Amino acid sequence: MKKTTENTPPGEIPVDKPFVDLVKVSKIFKPSITALQDISISIARGELVFLTGMSGAGKTTLLKLICCLDRPTKGVIEVEGKDLSRLKPKQLQLLRQNIGVAYQNFRILPDLTVFQNISMAMEVAYRSPTVIRRRIDDLLNMLLLTDKRDTETGKLSRGEQQRVAIARAAANSPSLLLADEPTGNLDTETTWQVMNLFKQLNDAGTTIIIASHDETIYKNAPFRTLKLVQGKLV
Ligand SMILES: Nc1ncnc2c1ncn2[C@@H]1O[C@H](COP(=O)(O)OP(=O)(O)O)[C@@H](O)[C@H]1O
Ligand SMILES: [Mg+2]
Predict the structure, then answer these.
(1) CATH code, residues 46-74+87-233
(2) Mean per-residue pLDDT over the chain, rounded
């Protein structure tokens, strides 16, 4: 039987309820930059969507609101059925553990190795050392980084650092993955390795939002594309 709002047990999110839901969301940076204006978006559980638009359109701002790194000026954002503005710090922390984010500026630690950067994210989620080693080996293999496993990330190229950030975001197989310009520094081959990883995670149930102005990754892809122009959805 298809789960609906009426027959879903309490606490379990029904399939017909959006996994990420924005209602008339605006973000104004003081004094007067309207980064996002009246954005309403519903993303289903298990969906993969591309968020496109030129530089400055508001993509990064939107992802930051969804992962609670910033708050909207107006509007409501629900993730997994929870209104983000109503969550207590502890609840927010729990929710964030299920969200993997690959930031546009990576935010990896340059003095730690590739392995250590990814491993830290998995230890926070109480993964066992064996699970951590296996998962990291798999991810590095998939992202063509195996030979960089024990290199400090500060010594890597931008493209390699970018893939480390993606591996870390994907490491715990989060229920929601946000990737901000994930192929910005990659060549054709590594771009497709990254896209294959996203598809694999998505097939396993992860909801994914990819912010990108790189047409080659979304042009012929069988996924929904949302376009921002100067902070508005078009
Ligand atoms: N912290 C901030 N303070 C002021 N303005 C900001 C801030 N973050 C982003 N902006 C502005 O908001 C707009 C959208 O930026 P951003 O979300 O980074 O766009 P995109 O990721 O699509 O390139 C831009 O005009 C940018 O300059
Ligand atoms: Mg951006």
Answers:
(1) 3.40.50.300
(2) 93
Q: E strands of the chain, at which residues?
A: 20-29, 33-43, 48-52, 74-79, 82-83, 99-102, 176-180, 207-211, 224-229, 232-233
Locate the ligand 1 atom nearest the alpha carbon of residue 53 and give its number. 22
Q: Which ligand is nearest to the CA of 62?
A: 1
Beta bridge partners of 211: 51, 180
Residue-level pLDDT at 17: 87
Tens of pLDDT, residues 26-72:
999 999 999 999 999 999 999 999 999 999 999 999 999 999 999 99
User: Hey, where are the domains in the chain?
Assistant: 46-74+87-233
Amino acid in the structure at residue 126: Y
Of all protein residues, the one whose alpha carbon is nearest to atom 17 of ligand 1 is 58
The amino acid sitting at 40 is: S
Count Cβ atoms within 10 A of the Cβ of residue 189 and give its class: 0-12 exposed, 13-18 middle, 19 or more buried: exposed
